Amino acid sequence: MAKKRVLLLSEGFGAGHTQAAYALSSSLRKLAPNVQTRVLELGSFLNPRVAPLIITAYKKTIIKQPKLVGLMYRHQYKKSLNRLTTLALHRLFYTHTKSIVRQLRPDLIVCTHPIPSAVISRLKRLGIEVPLCTVITDYDAHGTWISPEVDQYLVSTSEVKYKLVQRGISTSKIQVTGIPVHPNFLEHPGKAEIRQKFGLKDMPTVLVMGGGWGMMNDEAIHSALARWGSSIQIIFCFGSNEKVLRKAERNPLFHHENIHLIGFTKEIDKLMEVSDLLITKPGGMTCTEGLAKGIPMLFHKPLPGQEEENCQYFTARGLGEPIQSNEVVDRWMNRLLYHYDEVTEKRQEHQRNVARFYPMQSAQKVLEMLDHGSEPPSSVTDYS
């Protein structure tokens, strides 16, 4: 019997979209070994020279002009990408998408970013016959995610489903599945081995993350945390921001045996496992990974738009708290020092209830779509 094939498309505008694609790919392989998956950042795959320049420009805009990004987000909030825009995207950047789809012959395309979803939607209007599933990777529903050609939406919460219904999407096309996380975040390996691997002590521990781009570069917060280094272990993870990492390594403030500085790592699940508090930018993917681990979260300066919505969602449910001042940090440090048992008990309660946030539902719904789809073509392309 020929294997079913799933093509997962993302874009590099923030690491969370692609992380969600890989997380879904891993879950599919775990649940159904007969399914082959392929993950592509579509723009980078088609234009490996131009795409990094565009992504870098986008990143600089977010860092230097976050209010402008928020203004654009709100201005376009209820608007889908219109046909003229998708035509322009296709002509300028995605010309060869159709040939990629024909070459790989997927039984199903899953998009974890709105741009490839819009591009594939256009191809479906032009006659490409392939089911399209769009996974919304935030706790909000921006209009750019919406296209009539999407066969199935997988969304994080019932609130996001409601927003889609309000915009005319049939309830039959929307499934509340949570945002997919890698299966590793649902496991709980031995903490002693993890601590030994990273050179950590068995003591209250805080993990500080700036997202995949390492954007959390707030000297006031870093200084407030570093003051607790004698009694609380602090792990600063700077992601792919090598410049900020090197600057921190030269700063005497961080020269303490209980303060650890690391760059990009694929083992965030392990660092979350041995940490007792996560301080992070409230990206949809990072928040969902923290949710899967049951770790309490403090949110640092949400970017206008998606991050604000994510922050509000988790704060309203008692799963996190925004850092409105250094007093919030100090209160949590005292909690870890003097009420550690209460913190760990509440975390264990969250872990026991993680099933209600649908950690594997995205993969299961994708498999259902495959089961109800057509038989795969005879020619098989290598998806490994």
Automatic annotation (TrEMBL):
InterPro entries: Diacylglyc_glucosyltr_N, Glyco_trans_28_C, Glycosyltransf_28_UgtP. It is found in: Membrane. This is Glycosyltransferase. Residues 17-181 form the Diacylglycerol glucosyltransferase N-terminal domain. Keywords: Glycosyltransferase, Transferase. Residues 205-354 form the Glycosyl transferase family 28 C-terminal domain. Belongs to the glycosyltransferase 28 family. Its main location: membrane.
